[in-house]
Protein: Membrane protein
Organism: Kosmotoga pacifica
Amino acid sequence: MKRHAILVFVILLVSVLLTAKVLKVAYIYVGPVGDAGWTYAHDLGRQYIEKIFGNAIKTDYIESVSEGAESESVIRSYAQRGYDLIFATSFGYMDSVINVAKKYPKTIFMHCSGYKTAKNVGTYFGRIYEPDFLSGLIAGIMTKSNIVGYVAAYPIPEVVRGINAFALGIKYVNPTAKLHVIWVNSWYDPALEKEAAISLLNIGADVIAQGQDSPAAQQAAEEYGVYSIGYNSDMGNFAPKAYLGAPVWNWGPYYERVIREVMSGTWKSEQYWGGMADGIVDIDISDLVPDTVKKLVSVFKDAIIEGKFHPFSGPIYDQDGNLRIPAGDVASDEELLSMDWFVDNVVGTVPK
């Protein structure tokens, strides 16, 4: 009798395993997975969840998808093919996600860095401005010319906020240094990024930072024999003699969390914005940075994680001398998410 019961249990178990639904997860990337930056970091997260969930999920991705009409077509294609969860990983995909989500209410959509939500659409991002500030501390100490260059992508709040955090880090340790910004209006254009970096080097910048996805600015800095600050991931292999470090992403654990919620039926639309305390963002520091500087960065990192320090603590003035954040105050999330002005040690403008 016991043997019969065990046999029945095994048959039922095998039947459940064979009929268990495989969760289909898609990723839409704005750049190539080999960009060594933003898309590369997201794809590391995709690979992470494949290892975690194994055969319980099926993932797919399309890289180098332009923002706008093309992205809407790609997102719709995945929804039509029955994908359960779609991660759209660029700010410019926002309206495309919302449009498709209306027609596919049973599909869950997650949009990275946006602000529009729906019952089946959530948003997610990381407080990359925290390690941006830390990397600014490094740049402010390591510059000798007091000219730091920044190759910027698009004049959206996400980018402006990161530039300001970086500039505030510079100012904290070096009040005489200036951050010079050049816009390239692209997330991934290595030739243009390198050209912009060289123009900054030609005005005397001896540290080059960036907000794009390729290591081109890093490579320009190495060719000119100066330092660089990367972005998104460890770019040290591309400029080992220049690379000081970078604000970096760690998407894997967050993607794991979302997938577990979808699998368990507990997922709900939210606007997630985690920081270093969550582990979604961090700072990578190379061996070119002196130990004393690493210790300083570590002190500030711990203070941010523990909630004892905020990069946007007042008083903070804009370029026109206006007091934007009074002493004793901290910028609200609303102010950070809508930021369209530069702090007073930035040279350059925010195009309207």
Remarks:
- The chain has eleven helices and 15 strands.
- The chain has two domains: 2-126, 129-248+281-347.
- Residues 8-19 have pLDDT under 50 and may be disordered.
- The longest strand covers residues 243-249.
